């Protein structure tokens, strides 16, 4: 009998960088928050220049066309599953792509960045609420503590260390609109683990296509009111950035992150959005780094680490 010890060892399996990235949920979710933070800053900057519903419609049509050549084989293979779960897929398209994005872009024409960032901080609570209502999934003590700690960090950054400033903040219709977009996206986040077992490219291409189709009547109404997309340098740069980063990459990363660790553990990464937003203001707009920034960053990071720890909550259903 041959001596197995004398046989050469098999060559190590080499993983591509994309394969490695696809299995790093914390990095994927952090990059998602970075891209969405940049999207909020950009939306505020171009809010009066680009019609919000038209921008959202073009955004999802563009993402669908970019992904279609790569997604087509998977779409053909996954079509029976997509057709069998059509009501759920349409609901995901409406909540995660059509309503959520259009209303948030629209809201930025009426609200201030401070208010939007404050409302954004409630994102994890909406995810937890929908998960509890629909599936009986409760937050673990670690998740609840992590959300509370990271929320304290967000408020520290936004309020510049002065929590008494909360009393002077007033809310308007734009704030209500932005809040409704988070309610919608919280529902999408809670539902996404219930999607059929299909390829990521099938999921994102199908939902972006349906999202764009759902928005077409509203985009036609916006056009009829006189809102026009100006094809100048600012518009082209905005569309290019939005199509690549907060749309294609962010949603691929977000969906994969939730698939790996579940919505409740992923939700605290919402709190990285205002952290990245304030960092962008420091780096790009010349704002001064202050002690409250460092305290807030530390609290958010600690909260995200605590909440994303592996654990299970008691309840009739698990994600």
Automatic annotation (TrEMBL):
Annotated EamA domain residues: 26-158, 173-308
Record GO cellular component, one term: plasma membrane
Compartment(s) of residence: Cell membrane
Membrane topology reported for the UniProt record: Multi-pass membrane protein
Primary site of residence: membrane
Bilayer-crossing regions: 53-72, 84-107, 113-135, 142-159, 203-221, 233-254, 266-285, 291-308
Alphabetical list of Gene3D superfamilies matching this protein: 1.10.3730.20
Pfam families: EamA
Keyword field contains Plastid: no
Keyword Coiled coil attributed: no
InterPro entries: Diverse_Substrate_Transporter (IPR051258), EamA_dom (IPR000620), EmrE-like (IPR037185)
Keywords of the record: Cell membrane, Membrane, Transmembrane, Transmembrane helix
Protein name per UniProt: Multidrug DMT transporter permease
Organism: Bradyrhizobium macuxiense
